[in-house]
Amino acid sequence: MTQHKDLELFAKNIRIQVLKALGELGFGHLGGAMSAADVLGVLYGGVMNVDPKNPQWEDRDYFVMSKGHAGPALYAALALKGYFPVEQLLTINTNGTRLPSHPDRNSTTGVDMSTGSLGQGMSTAIGIAHGNKMLGKDNYTYLLLGDGESPVRPAAQAVPPDCVPGLQSSAAGRLYQGYLRFGGYAPEIPGLRLVRPGGGRA
Fold first, then answer.
1. Could you give the C-alpha distances from 128 to 28, 53, 57, 149, in angstroms and in order?
2. What angle in degrees, to the nearest 10, is found between the helix axes of 71-81 and 4-25?
3. What confidence tens digit (pLDDT) does each residue in 55-105 have?
4. What residues does 143 pair with on adjacent strands?
């Protein structure tokens, strides 16, 4: 999948599966999951070099969903990509499931990093990328960082990727489009600095 319409369709199907799964469950972080659908649609629909038939392939690209409450969207992307049956999405956050409320690499096929504690994803993604570079691997590590966790100390104090030996500049620019988060719309939150695509502050 590389065509624009195909990526749009992939993202749309992620949203549909999230709605079905959380509708079946009766609760969950719907907004956070929906806001991640476009990014996941592009990454898993065409950008990332992964192999669902060999999920532990050492040379694959890695993905860290730092805002772990958006896990249902990641699960939907993985299921649609072929890591496990789509029907399994209806077991999200139920007893005995392999799809807990937040991503767990020990439970879910295709998840590269366990997340849920906000602000931790930046440092772990940098660690994964640095480790792979030390091993001589020519792959990429992608990070989805939520605006609500950006001011959290572990994220704010993580070493900038350009300062880590051997790492190229990562696409760590954050995209803000006025999404509602707890406490108000992102541009209205005191002390929250917004970064526009390309690096300029909003």
1. 29, 22, 14, 20
2. 120
3. 999 999 999 999 999 999 999 999 999 999 999 999 999 999 999 989 999
4. 64
pLDDT digits (tens, 9 = 90+) for 115-142: 987 778 888 888 888 888 889 898 988 8
Amino acid type, 80? L
Please spell the DSSP secondary structure of the chain, one letter per residue: --SHHHHHHHHHHHHHHHHHHHHHHS-S-HHHHHHTHHHHHHIIIIIS---TTSTT-TTS-EEEESSGGGHHHHHHHHHHHTSS-GGGGGGTTSTT-SS-SS--TTTSTT--S---STT-HHHHHHHHHHHHHHTT----EEEE--TTTTTSHHHHTSPPGGGSTTPPPP--PPP----EETTEEGGGSTT---B-TTS-B-
Interatomic CA distance for residues 129 and 163, integer angstroms = 13
HSE-CB at 115 with a 13 A cutoff on CA atoms is 27
Question: Token match 């392939």: residue?
Answer: 57
Cα separation, 45 vs 39, in Å, equals 10
Letter for the amino acid at 87? E
Q: Yes or no: say if 149 and 138 are a contact pair by the CB < 8 Å rule.
A: no
Q: What percent of the chain has pLDDT over 90?
A: 47
